[in-house]
Design a protein that fits this description.
The chain is mainly α. Helices cover 59% and strands 0% of the residues. It contains 16 helices and no strands. The longest helix is centred in the C-terminal third of the chain and has 32 residues. The relative contact order is 0.16.
């Protein structure tokens, strides 16, 4: 099968004639899962927890990370520092507390049935982030933390849809059941722009740095000449689908299996790698996400509990084991 199916030809401007004009422009913070925020508030409320541990938790949550990065960009450490995690920790407990209290909760349990999908998207963000950073390190690319951030935030368009337009997301899912290969076109028809284009609009509104925009915009349209950030984010996105962490029905692969499709994508985007190197790269990615999945499952269980009762944030403190610790 011709591997050129993976190569993108460009990104059209959003077709705003078919959607409510700029509803995303008022969005100033992404929502997070109740259990995730409760865990973080429990950490913030415990004076024995160091700010680095708070930063490590922020590192595992797309909503909290998207809140912290614009602040870091204007801090003394800046995004050019040796470690973005250290830069976030340098913001101090008071600033991190404010980030938590200004992060909205995701309306996960509503008539649209988006609750399970919200948990999947939260898990997908972490899996993609870890896989992207691992791939970047294996390929010896500069600033691997940036690849982590790109993987964590590449689907922020969907996070915004969960909160602001759950009925549209439900309609996209319903139509994609019968036309899985037309996902982006279906989104364009129903929303006026696809989730990649929407993600860029959201990123701009949140004050995220422009270096992130290409990875968000083109992770479904990588090419051989694309920036490495786009290539790795695209690889991480498909990797999540192969791992069974995906928002939409698994479409039929043109290569016989999703695993075969993943191997083919590596060959297309990184043609200098021999077969053994491709296999080793993908194996490292698999190994890197194994410890995360257990931690994520525990949090999802707490999310289900939190939907049924009022829970004090501090009640989670004895059970906290952050995904950041699993990555260490």
């Amino acid at each position: 099968m011709n591997a050129q199916i993976f190569l993108g030809l460009g990104l059209d401007a959003p077709n705003r004639e078919h959607c409510e004009q700029g509803w995303w422009e008022g969005l100033r913070a992404l929502p997070t899962l109740p259990a995730a925020l409760f865990r973080f508030l429990g950490l913030v409320g415990d004076s024995s927890v160091e700010t680095q541990e708070l930063a490590d938790f922020i590192w595992t949550d797309p909503a909290l990370l998207s809140r912290a990065l614009p602040v870091v960009a204007f801090s003394e450490a800046g995004e050019g520092s040796a470690s973005l995690r250290e830069a976030i920790a340098s913001l101090g407990r008071a600033c991190l507390r404010r980030l938590a209290f200004t992060t909205p909760l995701l309306r996960s349990f509503d008539a649209s049935g988006a609750g399970p999908l919200a948990a999947v998207l939260w898990e997908r963000s972490q899996i993609c982030a870890a896989a992207c950073e691992t791939a970047a390190r294996e390929l010896r690319l500069a600033e691997p933390e940036r690849f982590y951030v790109a993987g964590m935030l590449h689907d922020i368009g969907y996070i915004a849809l969960f909160q602001a337009r759950p009925s549209v997301l439900a309609a996209i899912r319903e139509r994609s059941m019968s036309q899985p290969t037309r996902l982006l076109e279906i989104e364009e028809e129903l929303l006026g722009l696809d989730h990649c284009q929407l993600g860029v609009e959201i990123a701009k509104g949140l004050g995220l740095s422009p270096w992130l925009y290409p990875a968000i915009a083109r992770h479904h349209r990588p090419g051989q000449d694309s920036d490495p950030l786009i290539k790795i984010t695209s690889l991480g996105s498909l990797f999540c689908a192969v791992q069974g962490v995906d928002l939409f029905p698994r479409r039929r692969s043109l290569f016989g299996s999703r695993e075969g499709e993943l191997h083919e994508l590596v060959g297309v985007l990184f043609p200098t790698l021999v077969e053994a190197e491709r296999c080793a790269l993908l194996q490292r990615m698999v190994e890197s996400v194994r410890p995360i999945r257990t931690t994520v499952r525990d949090t999802i269980t707490e999310l289900q509990i939190s939907s049924q009762m009022r829970i004090s944030p501090r009640s989670f403190r004895p059970r906290v084991q952050t995904a950041a610790a699993a990555l260490a």
